[in-house]
Every structure is written in C-alpha cells, then in structure tokens.
Amino acid sequence: MQVMIDLCVIPLGVGVSVSEYVTACQRVLQEAGLEHQMHAYGTNVEGEWDEVFAAVKRCHEVVHEMGAPRVSTSMRIGTRTDREQSMQDKIDSVEQKLSEA
Q1: Burial of 89 (0-12, 13-18, 19+ CB in 10 A)
Q2: By the 8 A CB rule, do 48 and 32 touch?
Q3: Whole-number Cα distances in Å, 41 to 38, 51, 68, 91
Q4: Domain total for the chain?
Q5: What is the pTM of this model?
Q6: Which domain holds residue 72?
Q7: Which ranges of the chain does DSSP label H, i.e. alpha helix?
Q8: pLDDT tens, residue by residue, 90-99
C-alpha cells in the first residue's frame, strides 16, 4: 500500500539546535530511496507503507545512536485507494487552481 506521511522527528535532551539530527534523518530517507521533501517543520515522505515506516524506525535508531535520550515523533498519515497520487500531484493541483483565479 502506498502511503504519504508528514514526519516531524524531535530529539529531546540535546539542546536547542537540532539540525544535526534532522540531517541524519534526511540521510536515512535518502539511503532508503524514498521520495521526500523537507519543509521548515518536518518532511513529507511517500512510498510503500513498510518501507516508509522502516525508515521512520531507522530515524529513531540513528537519533538515539547520536546521543538523544528521548525522541518524540509526530506524523500525519494518508493513504488512498481510488487512484495513485504523489506529493507533487497534490501541489500541482493547488497551484493550477491558484493560477486560474
């Protein structure tokens, strides 16, 4: 099953700056070969359910290995069965409507 998630991994107990941990999670997603798009407060990820959630698990493992004693993650998860849709399809649909106004 294809899934699209909005992922925000937050290491706790590591200080104020978390960019080092965000970078590590981005590398996990790249190595997994998943389509992903970082934004200011998280990352959109799409792919097969098991592959996406294996990468989320790996992000937790990597962040713990980097010394974070706690990791809190929030996700929004979407699936659909009526048709295939990518992250870019969703963006294109809204941008097209904006240009028609």
Answers
A1: exposed
A2: no
A3: 8, 22, 19, 17
A4: 1
A5: 0.91
A6: 2-100
A7: 19-32, 49-65, 87-100
A8: 999 999 999 9
The domain spanning residue 77 has which CATH number? 3.30.70.930
Is 8 in contact with 77 (CB distance < 8 Å)? Answer: no
- Nearest-angstrom CA–CA distance, 69 and 64: 6
Q: What is the model's pLDDT at position 97?
A: 94
Rounded to whole angstroms, the Cα distance separating 97 from 101 reads 7
Q: Phi and psi for 69 in degrees, rounded to 5?
A: -75, -25
* Tokens (6 digits) for 90: 């969703």
Query: Per the structure block, which two tokens stand in for 14?
Result: 């590591």
